[in-house]
Amino acid sequence: MKTSTRIFSFFLMISSLVVVVLAGRFDQEFDITWGYDRVKILENGQLLTLSLDKISGSGFKSKKQYMFGKIDMKIKLVPGNSAGTATTYYLSSLGPTHDEIDFEFLGNVSGEPYILHTNVYTHGKGDKEQQFYLWFDPTKDFHTYSILWNPRSIIFSVDGTPIRQFKNLEAINGIPYPKNQPMWLYSSLWNAEGWATRGGLVKTDWSKAPFIASYRNFNAQTCVSSSSCSNNSTTNSWINESLDNSGQARIKWVQKNYMVYNYCTDTKRFPQGFPLECSLN
Question: pTM of the prediction?
Fold first, then answer.
């Protein structure tokens, strides 16, 4: 069978495995995984807050696994002096060969910008970090952070603006791509003072605790499993979605103006040459 035929057949199979969750309630879609007394679900399940103090952080996890999806979450990050804290929002499977798609928000000293840290793991291997400043204060209001994960690519977006794309080049160049392991959605707020702010040089000021991050407007269009999906052609366009010229231009704008670290330009880490995907993604 030709490669193009196999890819088309794969897309056709996946397009029939779609379930839509819109404006999901936190009390219905997620389980609290740790720091139970530091998690609050308010407004009839529409608002969730995580808290971190010197004793413990907190976190939650989706009740369902997703096999590809377009997931949006509005988050308002810890305000003020949040140095040493990390707010995470990511997809992950389990085990030593897990796949993972990461948003991590690294806290700051008051007046300094947050760093948005992104990474992609395949078969347990990551090392694909890109970091960005944001073009707004993420502590003043809620902003939408989105993960699009389909057979074509992974696209990270902020308020609808794509900031990063990781393409599926496995069939062409053998570069591993997350495509076989369903993942849960996780989020947490935890003490990462060993590395989060200036590589761990700035420690957490516990006199500012508790630190609080807030979440609302969880939306997901996902495949869950072959036995619990619908085939609605009006809602599964994301399964074949990719960036058009306008999207590519917006990524270039973000990366030119707001990127602060790119593993694909780190010669100290890769003295023998950059990973293959750096010249192709």
Answer: 0.89
